[in-house]
Design goal:
By secondary structure, the chain is an all-alpha fold. The protein has five helices and no strands. It has a domain at 22-33 and 43-90. Helix 2 (25-34) packs parallel to helix 5. The model has no long low-confidence stretch (mean pLDDT 87).
Length: 93
């Protein structure tokens, strides 16, 4: 080993998430569970009509899961930002 080389530290998922996602942990965990739903699986090169239908179905799943509420804008705006970040990771469109 090179004398100037740094040792590789073990990866700690909790430390990683604390650094990148320090707020609304419960909400973000709910989004992660939601992302495992079959409907959230990526689909590429689809017709516009199917894209619209899929977007509606995904929004319905998100609504039913209650991971976001219109009231969050007034009570917990950070949850709205977390939802925006997490939904973008699930479906960037």
């Amino acid at each position: 080993m090179n004398k100037d080389a740094q040792p590789i530290l073990p990866f700690n998922k909790d430390d990683y998430l604390q650094t990148l996602e320090p707020d609304n942990k419960e909400s973000r965990d709910s989004w992660r569970e939601l992302s495992k739903n079959e409907i959230m699986r990526p689909v590429y090169d689809m017709p516009l009509d199917y894209s619209r239908e899929l977007a509606y179905k995904r929004l319905k799943v998100i609504s039913d899961a209650k991971v976001l509420s219109i009231y969050d804008f007034g009570t917990n705006p950070g949850r709205v930002f977390a939802a925006h970040e997490m939904s973008g990771m699930i479906d960037s469109s």
